[in-house]
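Protein modeling request. Please complete all fields; requests missing the sequence field cannot be processed.
Requester role: graduate student
Desired output: 3D structure, token encoding
Chains: 1
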Amino acid sequence: MIPIPAIEKLSRADIKRFQEEKLGELLVYLQARSVYYRKVFNTHHVNIETIRSLEDLASLPVTTKNDLQHHNLEFRCVDASAVADYVTTSGTSGDPVLLALTAADLDRLAYNEALSYQCVGLSPQSTIQLTTTMDRRFMAGLAYFLGARKAGIGIVRVGSGVPELQWDTVARVQPDTIICVPTFLLKMVEYAEINGIDFQNSSVKKAICIGESLRNPDFSLNTLAKRILGKWDIQLFSTYASTEMGAAFTECEHGVGGHHHPELIITEFLDESNNPVPAGEAGELVITTLDVEGMPLLRFKTGDIVQPFYEPCACGRTTMRLGPVIGRKNQMVKYKGTTIYPPAMVDLLNDFEEVVNYVIEIYSNELGEDEITVKVGTEHGTEELMLKIKDRFRAKLRVSPRIIFAPIQEINRIKFPENSRKSVTFIDNRNI
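Delivered output (432 residues):
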């Protein structure tokens, strides 16, 4: 198992100097290899030799998801013969984007996930059960598998869904860690309870959770995490990652944010005008990838609003820690004078055991104002439950959106569209 890298235990000043040297190398690489960034530099009259510090990044244009979608192949910096693997983004906020990875990029991906495993305390004696798919051009499953190989950890690739197969694999292989979407843990518990499986005494003691948040902005456990832990005595570890950055922020046992690996990405936090927010305040996460060969990105806007924390962690790392995602910039809702992000509504709905599933739909009324409809799947769609949900919205979010009860299967058809790799909880019809 790889130890904590020396760079992740240095002072902030030393980390900054390291990243500035890497930034200089990246700019030279982009100038020489990237059709897209060469055009950007020429259009904006950028002299890369004047970009010496991390602060100088603010003088460069940002890269948006639209840029990556509309000029996709112009970002590729290597010949097709040098590409070892292709992946695509999930497409939850637009058309999927193709990303080309070289052999070195795959090694970088493996290194990142080996560090994630180190964060959660795994070792070569550990065994991981992977419920994330490795097919359909999905990066996450590939990353977790490659990371396990680099860390010398055993892994069993079960894939998504099918609780029966998951529990059969647990019984046969005896893994101590499972990688999954956290709501799937509730499905596994439900199946175990119905079928008499003693899940509390199973070999699984840790869960690396992807795709859904486990914590509130103050690092306290959110409703989903509390529901899981109320059923299953298991350690939960939250992660934040994206295909574009080819890196992850994974929390350690202290649960105070995902750890930044400064050897892999440079981070910025910007306001709505693309200006840096005051140090330590929440802003849109903007990343610059380091040591990526295939399709490196410069000042790429993730669209996620997050808060950085800079105090050293008790685990020994001195690097920045990333708080839970507060919301996606393009999903902010202004409802009756109140600003709301979908995660706040999701956390509230998860608090009702009667609610089996749900989708949140946003649309514009005739005055161009945001409206919210929450479609709730439940077996007990009573007036009493309706009033409880509305009262909770008023108490927690100071608004009361339209609530509609719908058949559970109907909600599932909306949540799991054909050919989608991720479930859909938030539907934004404002631009239609």
